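Project channel, design review

CF: Before we commit to the Kribbella sancticallisti constructs, I'd like one complete example in the thread so the newer folks can see what an input/output pair looks like. Taking Glycosyltransferase A (GT-A) superfamily protein (DUF2064 family).
RD: sounds good, go ahead.
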Amino acid sequence: MRAGTLIVIAKEPVPGRVKTRLQTEFSAHEAAALARASLSDTLAAVYSSAAGRRVLALEGEAGPWLPAGFHVLKQRGAGLDERLAAAFEDAYAGTPMLLVGMDTPQLTRELLDVDWAGHDAVLGLTEDGGYWCLGLREPDRRALVGVPMSTDHTGADQLVRLRKLGYRVLLLPTLRDMDTPSDAAAIAALFPALRVSRLHRRLQHAAHPALLFEKALDGARVVATGTDGRAVPSLAEVDRWRAPADAVDRLALSRCEGPVLDIGCGPGRIVTALAERGIPALGVDISAQAVLLTTKRGAPALRRPVQDPLPGEGRWGSVLLMDGNIGIGGAPGTLLRRCAELVRPDGLVLVEVDPDDNLDDPAPIILHADGGRRSSPLPWARVGTRAVLRHAVTANLLATEDWRAGGRAFLAFRSSTASRLARAN
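CF: and here is what came back for Glycosyltransferase A (GT-A) superfamily protein (DUF2064 family):
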C-alpha cells in the first residue's frame, strides 16, 4: 500500500512571515527566498511521486512557484494541530494520505512512495524533535488535535498519540528541517543540487553589506577585508562605536557649532554626547539598526543616504564625518562636496582621517561574518590627511585645524569662500 494522495502543508513565502529564525543571518527577503526555494524543491519531489493526487494545503496565496497538477486547499483551524487535522479531512478522497511540510527540501520520490502495507500510519521524525511527514489511511482528528506542536518533543508526542489509538506505525528515516542558518548550511552541503542549496551558496557570497554591518552593531563578530583578502581594520572599533563617547570624541565635539549633522551616525554615541552638551544634533545613517540604536539612546536620527535630500540643507553649523566615514561611497571628494552643500557658509566640516597621513586607498571592502556569509563589495575609501586635503580643494573647503589624540587623527574645514570673506573683514 502506498499513499494515494500526497499533501503539502505550507505557508506562502512572504518576507517577515516565513523562516524568521533564518533572519539571524539573512534578511527577511532572503529568508523568504530560501523558503520559496525549499517549497519548490518539496513540490518537485511530490510532483515526481507515484501518487494519484497531489494537494497543497496553503496559508496565503499561490504564486508562480506552484507547478501544475496540484489541488489547492485553504488551511483552516486555529493551531497547527487543528490545521493538520483539517488538511487530512479536506484532502480525503477515499485512499491513504501522506502529509509533508515545506521544510525538508531533501525529500525524494523513494521516501514519498514508501510501501506501508500492514501499517495504519506513517511518521517521519526530524532531528529537532518534530516530524516531517505523517501518513493516515483516513482522517482522524483524535490523532492530531491536542498534540503539542513546535516543541522539541512534538514528534515523540505524536508517536505516543498514534500508538495510544492502536495504530501500527511505520517510522521513516529521520530528516533535518531547514529552520536555522546552520540547518540551511548543512542541507546545502549535503544536497548541493537542490534549488535551495544553489540559492544558499549565492546568498552566502553576496550579502548586502548593510545586513552584516547591522549584525556587527548587534554584537556579532564581523571583519573586513579588501577584495584581495587582506585584512582591513574598518570594523575593528565597533565596540568603541557602541560605547558612550570617549575623551577623544569629546575633544573633537568641543569644536562643534550647532546645529550638528552626524553623517554615518552608527549607534549614536556622537549625537547622544552632543545632546548632553545641549547642542542640537541629528544623526543620519542608511542602517535601520543604527537608527534604532540611536533613537533608543534618546537622540534623533534619520535613515537616509547622505546624497538624498536632508533637512536643513545649507544651514547646519557643523557636519561630522567621524570614525573614518569620509570613506562612505568610496569617493571622498564627492562626499566632501556634499558636506559643503549641507553646512552653512561659515560652518564647520569635521573629518576623522586615517592616522597614516599618506594613505589613499579607494578599494572596496568585503565584510565577513562568523557564520560564513560575506558581503558583496562595499564602495569605501581609507584616506589620510594628504588625500583629504587634496579632495577638500575641489570642494572649496579650507583646512583650519589638524590635530591628533589617542592615536586618532582629525581635520577641520570651513568654506574657502567664507574664510576669504572673514580675512577681508
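RD: helpful, thanks. Residues 357 and 386 are 6 Å apart (CA to CA).
CF: The first helix runs from residue 28 to 48.
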